[in-house]
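Hey L., structure's done. Input below.
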Amino acid sequence: MKRGMLRRLPAAAAALLAVGVFGACSGAKTSTSSSPVTSSVPAASARVTIVSDAATIGAFTPPSVTVSAGQTVEWTFQDANPHTVTADDGSFTSIKTGLANGKTYSHTFGQAGTYRYHCFIHPQMLGTVVVQ
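Output:
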């Protein structure tokens, strides 16, 4: 019985290979169009990095950025400790439990003004976005 199974093994392997090859060839076709891919998320106009800082538990770097109305600021959380980006006036916030380890949060500013923000977890961490 073992010898009979061994004789059928090459045939079974060949059949599986054929199924794999034909399955790959008949799969969904991908587009070769050269049209650009568009995204509904605007590209960041300014970037702020949240880094470890012994004096304040963390820091927004740079602490102040300036953008035009309609532009986006992206915060990247490089610290291992969780932090938030929370507007003093409540107009925007990242999740209150905080972000860390390379996660990002973005906000698009529609109107001119000065927007002060802080870390909800560490209120001594302060930053400002000036929108012109």
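The chain is about 20% helix and 35% strand. The longest strand covers residues 44-51.

-- N.
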